[in-house]
Predict the structure of Transmembrane protein 45B.
Amino acid sequence: MANFKGHALPGSFFLLFGLWWSVKYPLRYLSEKVNKKSHRSQCYQRLEVIEGVAKIIFALIGMLAEQFVPDGPHLYLYSGKERSWVKLMNWQHTTMYLFYGLSGVVDVLTYSPLKVPLGLDRLMLSIAVFAEGFLFYYHVLHRPMLDQHIHSLLLIALFGAAFSILVEAFLRDNIVLELFRTSLTILQGTWFWQIGFVLFPPWGGQAWVEDDHSNIMFVTMCFFWHYAVAILITITNYTLAYCCIQRCKRNNGEIDIGLGIRKQKSDRSSLATLLNGSDEE
Amino acid sequence: MANFKGHALPGSFFLLFGLWWSVKYPLRYLSEKVNKKSHRSQCYQRLEVIEGVAKIIFALIGMLAEQFVPDGPHLYLYSGKERSWVKLMNWQHTTMYLFYGLSGVVDVLTYSPLKVPLGLDRLMLSIAVFAEGFLFYYHVLHRPMLDQHIHSLLLIALFGAAFSILVEAFLRDNIVLELFRTSLTILQGTWFWQIGFVLFPPWGGQAWVEDDHSNIMFVTMCFFWHYAVAILITITNYTLAYCCIQRCKRNNGEIDIGLGIRKQKSDRSSLATLLNGSDEE
Amino acid sequence: MANFKGHALPGSFFLLFGLWWSVKYPLRYLSEKVNKKSHRSQCYQRLEVIEGVAKIIFALIGMLAEQFVPDGPHLYLYSGKERSWVKLMNWQHTTMYLFYGLSGVVDVLTYSPLKVPLGLDRLMLSIAVFAEGFLFYYHVLHRPMLDQHIHSLLLIALFGAAFSILVEAFLRDNIVLELFRTSLTILQGTWFWQIGFVLFPPWGGQAWVEDDHSNIMFVTMCFFWHYAVAILITITNYTLAYCCIQRCKRNNGEIDIGLGIRKQKSDRSSLATLLNGSDEE
Amino acid sequence: MANFKGHALPGSFFLLFGLWWSVKYPLRYLSEKVNKKSHRSQCYQRLEVIEGVAKIIFALIGMLAEQFVPDGPHLYLYSGKERSWVKLMNWQHTTMYLFYGLSGVVDVLTYSPLKVPLGLDRLMLSIAVFAEGFLFYYHVLHRPMLDQHIHSLLLIALFGAAFSILVEAFLRDNIVLELFRTSLTILQGTWFWQIGFVLFPPWGGQAWVEDDHSNIMFVTMCFFWHYAVAILITITNYTLAYCCIQRCKRNNGEIDIGLGIRKQKSDRSSLATLLNGSDEE
């Protein structure tokens, strides 16, 4: 969908995942520092499965939206006597969503009885991001200069994230890589919104001049401002997670001193309590 | 051979290897999880030698086909008074096969008494894929747009596989890398067939318009559909391997309980039985 | 600031950091070889915090200079009825400084009670260098040939350093990577000065001919001479550090024999004495 | 020197090093397999120092040759009233040799009392190869097509070798990387000779047509034939080393059985005997 909504939808998906990760990974990292290896790992497995299902649902929404918007291809690939292609743009976007869907499927399979080897889930996510990157690369050739440039900046975030996730397939649960991925995902989310605002101003207004070199220069700089903001969001959420864990620790500590009896419970403290608090009590 | 057969032949070779690997690696991974370190490793060494020999044979077939088809160079490199080059296309294809042949030779040498260091076999395979990639890169310059684009998409699969195999030289027997290689090999196989169908429609019919931009767009997308299918094939075969191993385990378990005597045999169970069942009994 | 000062300022910052590192890392490496694991690590943490603060200050100076020089944008991003962009060059330079400032902030946070995971400081520095690289890349398109070439050579140093620092996020305290980073930082510093001298000769004189191909050739070669000098500086400072550590060792050894009492003090010898000598005595 | 000799000289240097490495590394690898960790390591350190000195000498020869051939710059960088550059080609070649000289210096320093950290020698060699690569890259722009292509193929070998040596800085004494470097060095050596034969046929004869596309195609393929030969040379020398070590082992074994007394000597057997046989006896 070459309109504002077509950019706002994937932007929201990426933003949601990015913000969620910016909370999840610091919480896990910090709570593991506090009490080493409790049975929280099971809780995280459940989270990964839920994330996988969310990816599948988001991908389905995206694919259906691309196919069945009023000016979509409605699942026709070619038509007419001359067998001309129908709405290839929408089909390409559908393909991008498809790979994220596949990534969700592998996420779910990893924690199924099949025991798909750990690491394949990250590999598949990396492939999905690479696929998005390559499709975008060929997608925007032969477009006006500003359109091409604003999309090609996205490629920096995409290939950066794809490489980083590829490394995660081998260095799993590395907090540095996870926060890097997080910041790049937030960047991708906000940048999709920015593309929407620049190319398809939602409240009308005059469009940006496509061939003005200073627009290009501003957009380049703006991309890095988005990244600075994404980094600040990540740092802020890390700090919030830190405060949260500190408070949990203090509360649990007091309980331990006061009662002794609830020791067993405090073992699965902090993050587990936060994430999974109600399922066994 | 710039015709349908010239693309179907290597396509079949890659497809054969890809499908074989999509069965072999899951079987090995899953059977190793069940019974740790039995003498199956010897059985796998034999398989690697057989693979090496298969590579050599396939490479020889490919080289002979490229040289001795009716319009081939018949081993003449230049001819005439002016020493003009003869059929350089076929010679370039011959060179591609040559490197896969060399990779087969190093595979065989690795398990010969020479004890070529482990890892060199993977390095040589990686070099063969890189060589194919670079030859293709220079091969398709100055061709019509669709021809060039459809071949250059192959480069993504080639360089991806080459890097992945290069890493395998140092991270040997890593199931994630092996399945990645498997999926890219299947992709390469099916894509060679696709190139054949697009550029040289075997049942006649009208050729694709070379300079139509929407053809380019479709072909890009189609490449990623091929990859999605390659991934699904890999997942399916992994699942089949899983079921197969589960059945073997259950059968062996029952025998163990019932007889006790056949314990020794069941040690080399599952994959070894499947692959090598008849050679000692 | 597209003038001599605008290149001399960042050049001096990089040169200062490069020279400081070319002393610090050899001293740390050699003193660790002499007495293994003393409480010097604390002293190095303090140094890292000081470096972080220095980065923040340098970044602030740079940003303020870019904004408030007489021909700067004075914090106006656009102006006039037509909302035309104001001095985007200066804004882009401000953005480059901003990322180094962020890197300083993460450096400080790493050793704050927040316990930001080790490695994120290196990752952030790497991102800052990448950001500088990408901004430069788009910055110099559409400029005269010599201008473009002399800046694009800088990209070799920038992307080299960015990759090397990225690896440091995972291979922390690796002396090989640290000295590589050091040499590339010195190179960047001297090259900024060189750019200033070539494009904006400070003592007037005739400017270089922009389109002369032999100027391009000389500049390419000159860049590598700068690097050779940067390597020689690093080697020289390493040698000085070696001599310094040797003398300290000899002195401490004599004291140990002579007095015995000062043993405790000599434990935190060599580098700690040099860097931190006066803070507890 | 843009003539046959100017390519034959560096070609011979690389070929010499490549052939020497193709003997040295297999010998070391195989002899280490036979008797684990003897005092041979000292012997290899001496060899590395000798290699370093050889690099310095070769680099000096190359630099002097480039400067003082009859049509060389004789150390003049610019001349005349207009300060025009003198023979920048030769100056660029001199710069390439310079970096290999620096690499030799770091090799020697590594085993000096200075104790330059292990790994810096490999890093410096990698930098030398990168420098050669980048200089070549800018060197051949704006040249006739065949000239440019034949040199740019060299870049594949150069950047491949540079990356491989960079990895060696961290994975030292890895036989796979060492043999890869060996094969690429042989390739570089033979390819320099090939460039000489193509661009400056030494026995006169007609020059190759610069703009003939089939010449380009042949040259591409020929480059890979050179690499196939380089691999075969490496395999052959490995096999010879294997036979040599086997014979040594058998001889030493017989001595051990026959005399018992010479046991001590046989400890430093095989390669040490070969390389260093006469220095203590």
